[in-house]
Structure to design on (149 residues):
């Protein structure tokens, strides 16, 4: 997206007008908001609701709490962007995208390290969540890499 140049008139007529370059953020705020909603939902489900169904899922409660903690970290970073709107939003988006892409591998590693055998329902839950998170991470990587500073 091209940069727009905004020229503001100066308070003194003899002074040159002030010029600012506006750098648009293409869909970055929406991506952070979508990721915040998803990470919050994942944190609530993994940390509050799903531990009561740990036996049916075949996933240990400690695993669900660990995944909820990772989701909380991602949600806090998304919320930090939405509150502070830093100028270096690309670096923050890349960080969140890498976190999103690492989340399924972490979920797989943590659930494989448990002594509990995962059920088909638990595997389906982790697979669907992983697909959604990886898709979002790929979109975040594309937006962050295609945007010019």
């Amino acid at each position: 997206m091209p940069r727009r140049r905004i020229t503001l008139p100066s308070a003194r007529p003899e002074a040159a007008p002030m010029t600012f370059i506006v750098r648009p953020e293409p869909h970055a705020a929406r991506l952070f908001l979508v990721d915040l909603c998803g990470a919050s939902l994942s944190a609530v489900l993994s940390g509050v609701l799903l531990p009561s169904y740990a036996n049916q899922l075949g996933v240990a409660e400690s695993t669900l709490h660990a995944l909820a903690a990772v989701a909380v970290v991602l949600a806090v970073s998304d919320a930090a962007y939405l509150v502070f709107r830093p100028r270096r939003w690309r670096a923050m988006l890349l960080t969140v995208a890498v976190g999103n892409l690492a989340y399924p591998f972490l979920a797989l590693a943590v659930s494989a390290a448990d002594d509990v055998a995962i059920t088909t329902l638990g595997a389906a839950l982790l697979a669907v969540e992983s697909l959604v998170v990886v898709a979002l991470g790929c979109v975040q990587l594309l937006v962050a890499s295609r945007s010019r500073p």
